[in-house]
């Protein structure tokens, strides 16, 4: 992670540029808003470099709606791969492939186009901003596999360690840039 020297320095930078909002979107959840991090030129470059350095053997980066799009596109550009937006339900015209799941706050559903996108035999690296319970990443991995792709791993900027997301996603290897 070139510019910042060490993993600990990057984790500190991420923490310092994360807005922590108590009881959002519901009581008991501390929301990690990475908007200040993404708006910082050096921090965005460092996060992009660090995540890109964790990818091996993938020819497609898939970012999860919506903050995963930002990091996913940046990482794909850095690696020279394609990028895939995994959308929340209702955003894509039919036909779609869908996966429903439970996440830290509430139920959700993610989708990709069922037509015009041949993922068979593609190797995909998943990217999101935050790993909480792991429901989102696990659903994204199932979606990719149903589409015929091979998921090589996943990368997140912040891992909420106490919520057990890493175990929920196992055996998929998850790389996180900071663990809180
Ligand atoms: P989960 O499926 O529980 O791992 O939740 C991860 C997804 O929900 C990611 O797409 C995050 O953007 C979002 N998310 C869950 N918990 C939080 C949180 N505390 N702060 C920010 N985003 C969160």
TrEMBL record:
Gene Ontology MF term list: adenine phosphoribosyltransferase activity
Pfam families referenced in this protein's UniProt entry, alphabetically: Pribosyltran
Catalytic activity: AMP + diphosphate = 5-phospho-alpha-D-ribose 1-diphosphate + adenine
InterPro entries reported for this sequence: Ade_phspho_trans (IPR005764), PRTase-like (IPR029057), PRTase_dom (IPR000836), UPRTase/APRTase (IPR050054)
Domain Phosphoribosyltransferase span(s) in chain numbering: 42-159
UniProt subunit comment: Homodimer.
Family stated for the protein in its record: Belongs to the purine/pyrimidine phosphoribosyltransferase family.
HAMAP family referenced in this protein's UniProt entry, alphabetically: Aden_phosphoribosyltr
UniProt-recorded name of the protein: Adenine phosphoribosyltransferase
């Amino acid at each position: 992670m070139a510019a910042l020297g060490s993993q600990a320095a990057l984790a500190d930078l991420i923490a310092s540029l994360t807005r922590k909002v108590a009881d959002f979107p519901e009581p008991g959840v501390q929301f990690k808003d990475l908007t200040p991090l993404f708006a910082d030129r050096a921090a965005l470059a460092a996060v992009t470099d660090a995540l890109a350095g964790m990818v091996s053997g993938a020819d497609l980066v898939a970012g999860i709606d919506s903050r995963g799009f930002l990091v996913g596109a940046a990482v794909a550009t850095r690696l020279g791969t394609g990028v895939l937006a995994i959308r929340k339900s209702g955003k894509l015209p039919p036909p779609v492939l869908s996966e429903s799941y439970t996440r830290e706050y509430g139920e959700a559903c993610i989708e990709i186009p069922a037509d015009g996108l041949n993922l068979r035999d593609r190797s995909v690296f998943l990217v999101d901003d935050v790993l909480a319970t792991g429901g989102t990443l696990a659903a994204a991995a199932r979606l990719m596999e149903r589409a015929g792709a091979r998921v090589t791993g996943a990368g997140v900027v912040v891992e909420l360690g106490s919520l057990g997301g890493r175990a929920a996603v196992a055996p998929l290897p998850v790389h996180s840039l900071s663990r809180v």
